[in-house]
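FORM 12-B: Structure-to-Sequence Request
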């Protein structure tokens, strides 16, 4: 899966075991802020029915690939389709111009292939699920040969060694259907999804700092939309990154937004993921959740995100400082709501 700030990759066994122990009767889980669908995919692998939601379209396609699409849904010729896409000659277009020349996130030779493959995906006679599978394959292939520190906010001054490799699409690892029913992907506002989707447990991992995932991964949004947006700045961000803001990325509005979301939640069993670097303290979040029912808290010491490990860089890719804190506390709040 793609590199992603805040990914719970190494925490997944802890999250899954907590759900299994604390909610042993659960057969379905809603991942309300699904991101790369790492948690949802792991839950589906465990046999649970999973509903995945995210308001970013690139995250929806990831969920459509890993959550809604089942191994049984893949056509017999899927590998031939991937081979066809891999063999297309490069054809420079919007992607090459903006993300390989105006900005240097990808080497132009791979940018030209990304342009050609993205155009061909829209020409194929395929189902929406398989289209998402191919878009995710393209995203993941591009992610493996990028020239960044993991975010699409800036690129390295010199090409990363991986940027010179030839991009190659692979088939994402798709899981079988859950015995409890079909899983589904949604692209809704979190409050709308939480109030409408019926499930046994809701897993909530909301944004809890100022960093917008749409801004951090704007290239993936543009790649799946293929809408040739107006862009700005050295990173060639989509103009709508300025206007489409989430209250979860606002320190002033975060608590009120979370409380409003929880008040309308359809399910009464929640697992809330947070850490000690969020907009509100561990104690304040615990108090807020206690307003809705019983709360238990688990914590684990954890290495901070990759950017903290490698230092602070400016927009030219030059290191300008060190991060003092390299570890934090990851928190899980187990909530049985009675509100």
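FORM 12-B RESPONSE
SEQUENCE OUT:
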């Amino acid at each position: 899966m793609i590199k992603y700030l805040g990914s719970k990759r190494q925490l997944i066994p802890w999250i899954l075991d907590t759900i299994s122990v604390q909610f042993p009767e659960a057969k379905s889980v809603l991942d309300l802020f699904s991101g790369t669908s790492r948690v949802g995919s792991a839950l589906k692998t465990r046999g649970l029915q999973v509903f995945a939601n995210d308001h970013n379209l690139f995250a929806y396609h990831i969920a459509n690939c890993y959550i809604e699409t089942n191994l049984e849904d893949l056509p017999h010729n899927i590998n031939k389709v991937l081979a066809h896409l891999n063999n297309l000659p490069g054809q420079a277009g919007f992607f090459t111009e903006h993300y390989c020349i105006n900005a240097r996130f990808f080497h132009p030779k791979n940018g030209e292939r990304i342009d050609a493959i993205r155009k061909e995906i829209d020409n194929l006679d395929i189902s929406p699920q398989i289209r998402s599978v191919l878009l995710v394959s393209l995203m993941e292939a591009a992610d493996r040969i990028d020239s960044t520190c993991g975010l699409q906010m800036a690129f390295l001054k010199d090409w990363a060694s991986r940027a010179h490799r030839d991009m190659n699409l692979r088939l994402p690892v798709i899981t079988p259907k859950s015995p409890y029913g079909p899983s589904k992907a949604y692209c809704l506002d979190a409050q709308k999804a939480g109030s409408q989707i019926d499930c046994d447990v809701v897993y909530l991992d909301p944004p809890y700092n100022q960093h917008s995932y749409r801004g951090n991964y704007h290239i993936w949004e543009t790649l799946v939309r293929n809408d040739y947006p107006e862009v700005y700045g050295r990173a060639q961000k989509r103009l709508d990154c300025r206007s489409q803001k989430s209250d979860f990325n606002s320190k002033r509005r975060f608590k009120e937004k979370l409380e409003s979301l929880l008040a309308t939640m359809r399910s009464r069993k929640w697992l809330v993921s947070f850490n000690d670097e969020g907009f509100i303290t561990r104690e304040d979040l615990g108090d807020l959740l206690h307003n809705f029912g019983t709360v238990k808290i688990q914590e684990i010491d954890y290495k901070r995100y990759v950017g903290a490990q490698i230092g602070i860089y400016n927009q030219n890719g030059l290191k300008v400082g060190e991060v003092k804190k390299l570890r934090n506390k990851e928190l899980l709040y187990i909530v049985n709501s009675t509100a």
